Give the backbone structure.
Amino acid sequence: MSALLDIRGLSVTFTTAHGGFTAVEGVDLTVEHGEVVAVVGESGSGKSVAMLAVMGLLPWTATVHAERMQFAGRDLQTLGAAARREIIGRDMAMVFQEPMTSLNPCFTVGFQLTETLAAHTKERRAERRRHAARLLAQVGIPEPEARLAAYPHQLSGGMNQRVSIAMAIACRPKLLIADEPTTALDVTIQAQILELLGRLQEESGMALVLITHDMGVVAETAQRVVVQYAGQQVESQNVRQLFRAPRHPYTKALLDALPGRHRGRRLPSIPGVVPGQLDRPGGCLFHPRCGRAEDLCRQRAPSPSAAELGFARCHFPLPPPESQP
Amino acid sequence: MLRFFLTRVGLLAPTFLGVTVVAFIFVRLIPGDPVEVMVGEMGISPERHAELLARLGLDLPLWEQYLRYLGGLFQGDLGVSIVTKQPVLHEFFTLLPATLELSFCAITAAILLGLPLGILAATRQGSAFDHTVMASSLAGYSMPIFWWGPLLIILFSGVLGWTPVSGRISLLYFFEPVTGFMLIDSLLSGEPGAFTSALGHLILPTIVLGTIPMAVIARQTRSAMLEVLGEDYVRTARAKGLPASRVIGLHALRNALIPVVTVIGLQVGVLMAGAVLTETIFSWPGIGKWMVDSIFRRDYPSVQGGLLLIAAIVMLVNLIVDLLYGLINPRIRHRN
Ligand SMILES: Nc1ncnc2c1ncn2[C@@H]1O[C@H](COP(=O)(O)OP(=O)(O)OP(=O)(O)O)[C@@H](O)[C@H]1O
Ligand code: SF4
Ligand SMILES: [Mg+2]
C-alpha cells in the first residue's frame, strides 16, 4: 500500500512588498497510514506554511510548487477546488494553534460542529446534533448536550481546543494535522490535550502529523520526526534513532539544549534566530549559528544526504555517538 | 444588556433637553421675524409690527418664551404653526410618511448595493474591480447633493426624458392618502399606472439621497471584510471544506456585519440631513422640504418642533441600532 501522504520537494514562495520570499523550500514528508510524525523547528521555520500548503489553505500571495504532492493516491496539485473541498475537513483535517481565535465567535459550538457534518455526510439535522454531542463527549467535554449551545467565548482555551479537535475528527479523517495544538494553553492543559490526541489517534488508527516546539512531546508521541529549519527540511529519522544519533548539527543543538534530555517545556534556545526574508545567508542556511561551520558551508548550500544519515542537509553530517571521541 | 440599555435611555433625556435649547436659539438667530417675512416688501408700521409680534407671544423676554415652550412640550404640545395655524405635531406626522418612504428606499438601495460591492471588493482586494468600487465610492461620498441632484435631473429627466422631475406621483392621479406611503397608496387606489408613476418619481431622489450612505456602507463593508478574512476562524471554516460562498457569505460576513450595522445606524442622521436638500430639489412634500419652507417663513414653532422630532427619530434609531448591535454580537449579548 502506498503512503497516505507523499510529498516531495515542496516549496512555498510568498509575494511580498519586498519581492518573493521562500518560506518553505524542498520539504519532503511521507506519512504512512496510522503513523504519527512530528515536525519540529523553531518559530518561523515554515512548519505551518508547509502544512497549510498541503491543506490548500494558503492565501493567494503564496505560490506552491512540489515534485509530488499526493494524498491517499490523489494528486493534490491537479485537484480542482471542489474536489479538494471534499477531501479537506473529511479525510484530511487540521487543528490550529490558537483555540481562542480559531472558532467563529458569532456561532455556537453546536452550529460549527454540525456544519462540518452537514458538509460531508448525509446525516439529517437531528442526527447531526446527536453526532455532535457524541463528538464532544469523545473529546472529554462534560455536559456535551448543554455545550452545543455555548459560544466559543464562554469556554476556556482548553475547552475550545477540544471543540476544534472534535470538529477535525468529526468525519473520521485518515490524516489529522495538529499545528502546535498546545502552545497557547496552560502547561497542565497541554498534557491533557496531547493525551487526548494520542488516545484519539490510537482509537481511530488515523495518521497524525504533530507540529510542535517540544522535543519532550516528540519523544512521547511520535514515531518519526522531521526537523525543519528556515523553510528547509534538515533531517528526518525515526524517533529513537534521532534521539540517539542526530545527524544534523541543528537537531543536535535542539537536543543538547534539552535539560538533561528530560522533557523540556519549550524548544530550547540556540544562540541567534531563524533567518527571515531579508537576512537569508548564502550557503548553508544554518551556518551563522552552527558551531561546526567551515568555508564550504558559507559557500555552497548542502543537499540532503543519504537515508542512513537521516537525510541530513549538511556537508558534514554527524557520525553516530559510538564513533564519536 | 439591560443595564446597557437603561444607561443609553438615561442619556437620552439630557440630550433631548439640549436639542430644545439649540432649536429654540437657532430659529431666533435667523435674521428677521415671522411678521416681517409675512408682510414681505409691502412694509408695515412699527406699531402694527409690535402688535402682531405680541399676538404671537414673541414680545416676551427670551427666557419666558423658552419656559412657555418647554411647558408646552411637557404636555405634549409642540405649538401651532404661525403660517398654517395647524398644530406642528399634526403637520409633522402628515408629512413624515413621504420622508420615511424616501429615506427607506434610499437606505435599502444603499444596503442592497453597498454591502455586496464591499464584500466583492474585499474578496478581490487590489483588483481593477476593487479599485473601481473604491474610487466611485469616494466620488459618491464627496458628491454634494445640491450638485448631484440637478445633474441627474438634467441627464435623466431633461436629456433622456426617462424620469419625472418633481413630486411624488403624476398629477393625473388623485386619491386620498391611506397610509401616506405613496407606493402603498397607489397600489390601494387600484388606479392603473399609479404605482408605476409613484415608483418613477422615487427613482432619482432615492439615488441622490442613497449615494452617500451607499458609499459609506461599501467602504465600511470592504474594510471590515478585509479584516475578518484574515482571521483564524475563516481559515478554520475553509479547513472544513466549506464552499467559498459559505465561508465568505456566512462566517466572514456575520462578523464583518457588526461594525457595518453601526455605520448603517449612523447613516440615519445623514439621511435626515440629506432629505432636506433632496426634498427641496425634487419638490418632495416631506419633512425636509417642510423644514426649509418653515425656515424661510420664520415659522418658529414649526422649525423648533421639526428639529426636535427629527432629533428624536435619529436618537431612537441609534438606540435600536445599539440594541441590534448587542443582538448580533454574542460577546456583548452575554456580558453580565
Ligand atoms: N501569508 C504570508 N505572507 C508572507 N510571509 C508569510 C506568510 N505566512 C507565513 N509567512 C512567513 O513564513 C515563514 C514561516 O512561517 P510559519 O508560520 O510556517 O512558521 P512556523 O514554523 O509555523 O513558526 P511557529 O512555530 O511560530 O508557528 C515566516 O517567516 C513567516 O513570516
Ligand atoms: S552544512 Fe556546515 S554550517 Fe550547515 S549545518 Fe552542516 S556543518 Fe553546519
Ligand atoms: Mg506555526
Q: What stands out?
A: The first strand of chain A starts at residue 5 and ends at 16. The pocket of magnesium ion (ligand 3) is lined by residues A 47-48, 97, 179-180 (CB under 6 Å). The two ends of chain A are 42 Å apart (CA to CA).
